[in-house]
Specification:
Blueprint lengths: L2 H10 L9 H23 L4 H37 L2 H19 L1
Keywords: Copper
InterPro entries: Metal_Tscrpt_repr, Metal_Tscrpt_repr_sf
Family: Belongs to the CsoR family.
């Protein structure tokens, strides 16, 4: 999907379901950003491989938790509202959510 497609979809939609938790998501993503900087520093300082891998695992879990939260919000708001309305938009939202979940599972 191109960024133009994503932008068009964003303008067509209602506000994202995660807006009520926006600050929490931003806080968590800033923490992940800090973890990434810490990993860079650990490699630069040539720290022990297992210690770096432990931090990679923690960062991966943190990102997975953000992703799972966003999936839950999407299902509870965007998909639920589209299904309630019905029609092709409902089918598209369910398919879109399913594809997003599949991408998360494969990662």
């Amino acid at each position: 999907m191109t960024s133009t497609d994503q932008q068009e979809r964003a303008t067509e939609q209602t506000p994202p379901g995660y807006l009520t938790q926006k600050q929490e998501y931003l806080r968590r993503l800033r923490r992940v950003e800090g973890q990434a900087r810490g990993l860079q520093r650990m490699v630069d300082e040539e720290q022990y491989c297992i210690d770096i891998l432990t931090q990679v695992s923690a960062m991966t879990r943190a990102l997975q938790n953000v992703a799972l939260g966003l999936v839950e919000e999407h299902l509870a708001h965007c998909v639920r509202d589209a299904v309630a309305t019905g029609g092709p938009e409902a089918d598209a939202k369910v398919r879109e959510a399913s594809e997003a979940i599949a991408r998360l599972v494969r990662s």
